[in-house]
Formamidopyrimidine-DNA glycosylase (Mesobacillus boroniphilus), 267 residues
Amino acid sequence: MPELPEMETYQTLLGSLIGGLKISDVEIGREKSINVPVDTFTKQVSNQAIKTITRRAKYLIFQLQDGKCLLLHLMLGGWMFFGKEEDKPDRTIQVKLSFGEQHLYYIGLRLGYLHLLSPEEVQEEFKKLGPEVLDADFTLDAFLQIMQKRKGTIKTTLINQEVLAGIGNGYSDEILWHSEIRPDTKINDLDVQQLTRLYHSIQFILKKGIEQGGYMENPLYKGDGKTGGYQFYVYDREGKECSRCHASIIKSEISSRKTFFCPNCQQ
């Protein structure tokens, strides 16, 4: 599932590719991917320019010139491609927005969606989200205050979007590896030093993920050299060598989520 770094990469790249451009045509391949009737969606979105593209947690918000918004959540397996018809992937397209001869294809939206909403409805969707962990006002003190109120395992807490926005299964394992904390550790058992280390690891790993274009396998456009440059330390590397202590990475399950960690250097 795309997480904060992947969506931030999409936001940056799409801003330069389609920011300010007018949507010349709309095609819906799967009605369940949108929230209004196809005719309504097509009529209200066609001939609208993309004013801005912003990110909140794992969402992208495409603001249209009339003030309406397209709210995108890719969920599990969703991705996008921008380009000409002859360059599009050989995959089922759920939604297609055209910008003249170039098109933005939304692919794999079996669980994901592109909803047409007012700004107020978008804010309502975000009501329960936790803070943005890369915002300037998300300080160490703010993080420690949040953790003081939480119980349960640290892995489950990191991926709870109502606690912290944008961290998912993959990067939670990366963050915990970097901070040398076992994912099944109870929050109550973590001291201030460990929590401080964890805070700095959140900053380091997510910023590195953004700098390297996230971990998405599929390029956003033909010749895209940015997307997918991030290489995991532990996630999905069961049986491979830990780059820090050379022990074998193991796979476990926490709250029905596959979890990867080093049993030697994560204590």
Remarks:
- The longest strand covers residues 50-56.
- The chain has a mean pLDDT of 97.
- The radius of gyration is 20 Å.
- The chain has two domains: 4-125, 140-261.
